[in-house]
Design goal:
The complex is a heterodimer. Chain A is an all-alpha fold. Helix content of chain A is 75%, strand content 2%. By secondary structure, chain B is mainly α. The chains are: A mainly alpha, B mainly alpha.
Amino acid sequence: MRLYHLYKDKNDLLNHSLMKLSKKIAVLLFVITALFLARMDYSEAAPNEKMDDLLYALSSHNKYVRAGAAEELGNIGDPAALKTLDDLWNEEMDDEVVFAIELAICKLQLSDADPKVRILGAEGLGEKAGTRSVIDATTSDGEGSSLFKHISVSDQEMMVVIALMEKMLAVEEENNVKSAISLAIEKFKMSDGDPNTRTEAARFFAELKDPGNLMYLARVLEKEKNVNVIAALKEAVVEMEQKEQMALTLKQLFNGFAVSSQYLLIAIGLAITFGVMGVINLAHGEFMMLGCYVALMVQSLFASFFSESIFGLYFVLALPMSFMFTAALGYALERSVIRFLYGRALDTLLATWGVSLIIQQIVRNVFGANNIDVPSPGWLQGGVTVFAGLHLPYKRLFIIGFTALIIGAVYWLFYRTRFGLKVRAVMQNRDMSNCLGISVPKVNSYTFALGSGLAGLAGCCMSLLGSVGPTTGQNYIVDCFMVVVLGGVGKIIGTVAGAFGLGETNAILEFFTTANVGKALAFIMVIIFLRFRPTGFSAQKGREDVRLDTH
Amino acid sequence: MSNISHEKKRNTREWIIAGSVLFVFLIIIPLLSTLPGEDSWCRISSFRLNLLGKFCCFAILALGLNLAWGYTGILSLGQGVYFGLGGYCMAMYLMLKVGASGHYGSVLPDFMVWNGLTELPWFWKPMNYAWVAIPCVVIVPMALAGGFGYMLFRSRVRGVYFAIVTQALAMVLAITLVGNQPLTGGTNGLNDFRAIFGLPLRGPDLPRTEFVLYIATIVILFGAYMLCRWITRSKLGKVLVAIRDDENRVRFSGYDVANYKIFIFMVAAGLAGLAGALFVPQVGIIAPANVGIVPSIEMTLWVAVGGRGTLVGPVIGALLVNAAKSGFSESFPTIWLYFLGALFLGVVVVFPKGVIDIPNMIKRAYRKKSK
């Protein structure tokens, strides 16, 4: 845009043409000199010396000499020049030279040892091709194209670049780099003068089906004049849009799945304290939040006492630490308060709310009221790309896997161990269990500790997803209670169903509306669902109404 | 015979207490507030009078919540919803009365202009008229409570489940209010009112308006108290207590439990709406922060502190807790949350019957000792 304004005057245009002419002469002169110099030298060091000359030329006052030198440097293909060009790129002010340097950098990058850099080079060239096709198509507009011509790849250059890329493609071994290079080639072909070549390129994009190119193709389509090419392009766009739709749907489903497993991870502890013991623990969210802070503390411990190399392992230690810390706290809470309140479910609700306020304030006084960022360990950063447009982050995958593990462990504990048997016995009939020699108070306090510990564990996992603050827990508590109520009390499988029911409903509704409306609608749907199934998806038959009495 | 005379005696005693309390709140305190001299120790500043008026709004809400929780055993953790609906109805009316004298000079409220709205949303339109807005203050919360209660009580959702679902409702309302800024004012809520029924809500004449509003609040509080007294003394009230104590037995005796519950839940909602409507002009703002989960749970604390299932308890509780809150947060803001948390714990573990039971506790302890 800046350039356009610069040359909008006719005089300027004339100047511009003159400048272009002088550029050509300068380049010509320069190349002749360079060739002359090259011919004069017969020694082994010839390319090196030539490069030295080029590097020298790069500091010339004449911008055309600089641009020409950059161009030549790119063609020589010596990776050593990359650094110099990079430095120059930072300092260079003139658009034309910047363009020449960029092009040269891309070319050099293409023959780099690192496949990532090679991809970068191919992508850069692809971008240049993109500009070219958009500008080329504007030729009929007159001014616009000629104004941008000096910062777009010329036809001759294009042939050189394509030839270079094809050469690289032949020797390339990495698949990623191969596809990046062929993409760049096709983008250049898309800007070719021959409509047949363009049609072929469009077919290539149709076969590739990468939604990432949608914007690019839309831009090309806007400028295209040839009917055949337009038809081929439209076909490609339709193919891509279908693919994008699919990717979007799958992504939303995956997000729903990830959110559901978060819900489940937090709610499983709640399902135990609420479902099994009839205690409404509103401090559950705060236990979770404390789990986050334990992770944070273990992290800073690692940062200050251990070497950088094992920093990523902090998380492995943080998991059991957070479990033990919150479990101990839960045990203390049960012994000091909750045990006086069995059979008064609504009173446990008020009491634990009080506890949650106190915990929040303590955290505020100790760590401050602001949210603190928790950097996640290196081995959980990044993700796996299933296909173009569908990227699954490792963190989410980890949480899903970890949730499955925890659910399995809880199931095993409840249905395969002696402790689980006792817990279920107490849940079904407190007095009878007492008569049969089960120590009900003991079972109760261990169960509550287990539920609280699981909250801490969940909090530790949630710390992967970003920051933590004193009110982190409060944001989750209502969702988790809804999960437990929706799932029905007393069965693990019910909680699983509740979590996925709420999570996916939320994700789907969010997809059609906004995040806020989606959540509100999901809750309303749960309320309506409860009207028809008051006990949720699955419910323990029997004595729960006695335990969960109102006061 | 003796039973009846005993009842009569109790009644007269109660009337004397009620009358003297009313005398203090309606005559003495307003008189003290009109005393000349800014720094006289017995003068109640208009700031304090306004605070007291606000607390009395909360007391109205607590009376209603107590009918549901204390007498019928329905714990609502979403009473803020009805409070908010009443408050928002009132605030919408006051907002529209600002008219074209707003900052942008538009008939629309300022925040709507700011959000790029050009026309009044449909549900704002009827609020232009006092005769729609004022009844709506009670009717809208009651209608929502009725629908909500019909859905859940009919399918016998009760106790803890009901409490959690009401909590979800509070969250839904808060989310909706925050999420629809162009329609509801978003997180900032509705504020910056100019006048109510011709009385200014800003400027030098504000204390006079506050005085009138205070009197109105006390009168309405008294009315609400009488309503609750009447309901709990009637046969209906006896059924409610029976539902609280054993719902199934009442159902088996042939009563339609759900209808009783729906009715009392609606009354509670209506009182909450009324409280919200009185709250708005006195405080000058209603925002999602007044209606969400946290304030809703705090509301149950007022009732619990005062004494569940007693008529006067909730009023005392609301006044006490809020007085403590404003006292603490004025002088030690960080300690307030510790105190609040301890209050929740204490009222459940130490005084499950609330402060109203403290004299009895002392009496019992004394008797035990003398034995």
